[in-house]
Hints:
There is one protein chain. It contains 21 helices and 16 strands. The protein has helices at about 1-10, 20-35, 35-50, 65-70, 90-110, 120-145, 155-165, 190, 210-220, 235-245, 260-265, 300-305, 310, 320-330, 335-355, 385-390, 410, 420-425, 430-445, 465-480, 490-495, and strands at about 50-55, 80, 85, 110-115, 170, 195-200, 225, 250-255, 280-285, 295-300, 370-375, 395, 400, 415-420, 445-450, 455-465. Strand 8, helix 11 and strand 9 (about 280-285) form a beta-alpha-beta unit. The radius of gyration is 24 Å and the shape is globular. The protein starts with a helix and ends with a helix. Bound molecules: pyridoxal-5'-phosphate. Pyridoxal-5'-phosphate binds near residues 57, 120, 227 and 294.
Amino acid sequence: MEILKDYLASxxxxxxxxxxxxxxxxxxxxxxxxxxxxxxxVKELVDQRSNLKLIASENFCSLxxxxxxxxxxxxxxxxxxxxxxxxxxxxNVDDLESMAINEAKELFGAxxxxxxxxxxxxxxxxxxxxxxxxxxxxxxxxxxxxxNLLNLSKAEWDEIRQKMGNQKMLGMDLFSGGHLTHGYRxxxxxxxxxxxxxxxxxxTGRLDYEALRKQLHEIKPLVFLIxxxxxxxxxxxxxxxxxxxxxxxxxxxxxxxxxxLVAGGAMTGNANPIPFADIVxxxxxxxxRGPRGGMVLCKQExxxxxxxxxxxxxxxxxxxxxxxxxxxxxxARSPEFKTxxxxxxxxxSNLAAALVERDINILTGGTDNHMVIINVSGLNLTGRQAxxxxxxxxxxxxxxxxxxxxxxxxxxxxxxxxxxxxxxxGMGKAEMVEIADxxxxxxxxxTPTKTKxxxxxxxxxxxxxxxxxxxxxxxxxxxxxxxxxxxIDADFFAKYFTV
Length: 499
Ligand SMILES: *Cc1c(COP(=O)(O)O)cnc(C)c1O
């Protein structure tokens, strides 16, 4: 009770707020076990409060969502799905999971929702396996007149196993913005599928639907997968449905990045994948602003296969995270979230425009969603150098490959930035222009050093000291005005732990 006692003493006469009391009590429990762990939590709070979070895949969830995650629900096993569990005593988890499912269906207008995946990668495995079971395993079992895998002979089982492992998937190439779980050779998905990739057009940097059609007709994949973590343009999902139908492919969409924009109504009509895709996967912690986790939304015909993620792919779900998902989905149904989603997109557009005005090279010249991708190769920099120089100035973001990148996935030629987190803090157009101005000035005043051989280094650089000092000051001014979790007195903890 040490922190709590000291905090109460420090607030003598002042009104106490509930969030601060809860946070202090929780931290007190952690510190009693291990102060070094508690200190890292505080250091992270201070870090996220003092650096500008421009990572496109990150956000700040509400304290309500955080509190729903940190409690005794974590102790409950609940393999199965609501009403069908392999364990006793799951009544409360049944209720919580059903709440999250209903909220998700309502939020996205989906026929079916499965809220157990622990992450986006998990959700993709669940979806892949549901498709393979429904499309390959089930017809083979019917032909054998069998319903139970355990009754198959070894030869029959081997035939099914091999056929399931030999199906084709067409997904977006990693360098064009696709995700490693979409058939990248270093990921298990490349063993589950015979994987093929499509790229963005070299000329426009956008998806080329005619080229896609040609590839689909050549490959005739079982799964046509659309999804990306570094692509800034809307996709016409009605057109994708048509293309998938031409070759009889299952249309799967991984909306991990833009789910919040769909939920908030900033991506509607043909840009919303839900009405068109057979199966949609997502994370819940990116633009959707919920707890770290994943989800599958699907048409009714895939529901029973998706719900059987345990035993197919998963063990027990995380009841505490499902509770937090229920809260986050409800938040996402509010009118405030609609405004939030609209503001994310407006902020990204304004950020892109302000960068272009400052002669920074943006892929496709702008954005339709929450992210902007910068090509820094014209400044003689690698993504790694740019990422490090900006972090020195208090801007947290990540380097990213650009299509047909010649610097490889470690150094890269690009930067990916996004507006979900800064929009959560309440920033708007003026702040986006200020951020673009700081970024442009840092990038233009960073130069690669020369290697011993006289070549330009891909890792080392020199950043102008004056520009650095000025940028740090400007970032601090922004962070002082837009405070993360203003209810929480981070300075008190920082002093307490001498962070
Ligand atoms: C982030 C992301 C994932 C993976 O999510 P994790 O929760 O990190 O596993 C999957 N697909 C896409 C398109 C993503 O952007």
